[in-house]
């Protein structure tokens, strides 16, 4: 049974689908399709962003990391559609579709049960536009979900909130850079859960309106891999599995202070 958090430190949630390159989606057609998608979404702006290289998960991982790049004759271009309030962004390229929901300072955090149907709805709108203009989205080769958490760390609350960080005999923590990966052990699916923690700094106004630098702990939990089935019917349960793994890992890593700080309770 997963835990609930009334004050979860979630900053943003991203879901992504990776597929074989759409051969007919050249740069002109990509931009044209994204302009049509912009109108379909309503209230979104459009901009060009860097192309995201898709790294495929494999069953085994060697000590060295190898990067492969296959040229398909398609320009490396990605388009991002951003909602007017900048809480939703969708990135489209010829082999990847992703959507990110960003938490507002005074708003609740993005809820998975609401985000998943919204994500597939946005993807299906894109798919219909591609098919109507003569293209075809190939089989989905990989999907993933990522949660990014920001915990204010000026008083070392970030360190003290997690068991795996507050382990040093020294009291003055200067910063953290920590990462782990765990492999999904399943004969029919391939996937990994990544956890990364690092100290980041940002400028923000205090209660008096003065701009000051604050220290935050950025904790990212990412689950991605190849589902059993390549269609939406396979991706949806794979994302469910990823969400469960992320929340479970987050819960297990919390200290007593963290459970209290984030308002942990039993889902029920």
What does this structure look like?
The protein has a nine-stranded antiparallel β-sheet. The longest helix is centred in the last third of the chain and has 22 residues, at 232-253. The protein is globular and about 60 Å long. Strand 5 and strand 6 form a beta hairpin. It is of the alpha+beta class. It has one domain. It starts with a strand and ends with a strand. It contains five helices and eleven strands, in the order ββαββββαβαβββααβ. Helix content is 25%, strand content 35%. Helix 1 crosses helix 2 (112-132). The chain has helices at 27-41, 112-132, 157-160, 232-253, 256-261, and strands at 3-5, 10-19, 44-49, 78-83, 88-93, 96-102, 140-152, 177-183, 190-205, 211-226, 264-266.
Mind sketching the topology for me?
Elements: E1 3-5, E2 10-19, H1 27-41, E3 44-49, E4 78-83, E5 88-93, E6 96-102, H2 112-132, E7 140-152, H3 157-160, E8 177-183, E9 190-205, E10 211-226, H4 232-253, H5 256-261, E11 264-266
Antiparallel strand pairs: 1-11, 2-6, 2-7, 3-4, 4-5, 5-6, 7-10, 8-9, 9-10
Q: Stretches where pLDDT falls below 50 for ≥5 residues?
A: 63-72
Termini gap: 8 Å
Structural class: alpha+beta
Strand arrangement in the largest pleated sheet: 3-4-5-6-2-7-10-9-8
Element pattern in H and E: EEHEEEEHEHEEEHHE
- Beta-strand segment tally: 11
* Morphology call: globular
Tally of helical runs: 5
Portion of residues in beta strands equals: 25-35%
| pLDDT averaged over residues | 85
Largest sheet: 9 strands, antiparallel
Helix content: 25-40%
Radius of gyration: 20 Å
Please tell me the total number of domains. 1
Protein name: TIGR04255 family protein
InterPro entries: CHP04255 (IPR026349)
Organism: Litorimonas cladophorae
């Amino acid at each position: 049974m997963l835990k609930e958090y009334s004050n979860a430190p979630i900053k943003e949630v991203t879901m992504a689908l990776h597929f074989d390159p759409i051969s007919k989606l050249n740069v002109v057609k990509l931009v044209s399709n994204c302009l049509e998608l912009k109108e379909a979404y309503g209230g979104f702006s459009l901009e060009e962003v860097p192309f995201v290289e898709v790294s495929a998960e494999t069953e085994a991982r060697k000590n060295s990391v190898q990067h492969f790049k296959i040229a398909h004759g398609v320009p490396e271009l990605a388009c991002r559609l951003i909602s007017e309030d900048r809480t939703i962004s969708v990135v489209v390229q010829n082999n990847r579709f992703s959507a990110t929901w960003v938490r507002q300072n005074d708003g609740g955090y993005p809820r998975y049960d609401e985000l998943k149907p919204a994500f597939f709805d946005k993807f299906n709108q894109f798919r219909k536009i591609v098919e109507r203009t003569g293209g075809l989205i190939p089989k989905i080769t990989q999907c993933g979900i990522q949660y990014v958490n920001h915990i204010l760390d000026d008083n070392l609350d970030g360190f003290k909130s997690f068991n795996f960080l507050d382990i040093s005999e020294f009291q003055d923590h200067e910063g953290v850079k920590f990462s782990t990966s765990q492999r999904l052990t399943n004969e029919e699916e391939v996937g990994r859960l990544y956890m990364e923690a690092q100290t980041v700094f940002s400028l923000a106004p205090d209660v008096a309106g003065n701009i000051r630098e604050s220290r935050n702990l950025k904790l990212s939990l990412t689950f991605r891999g190849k589902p059993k089935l390549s269609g939406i019917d396979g991706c949806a349960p794979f994302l469910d599995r990823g969400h469960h793994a992320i929340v479970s890992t987050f819960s297990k890593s919390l200290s007593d202070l963290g459970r209290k700080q984030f308002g942990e309770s039993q889902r029920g």
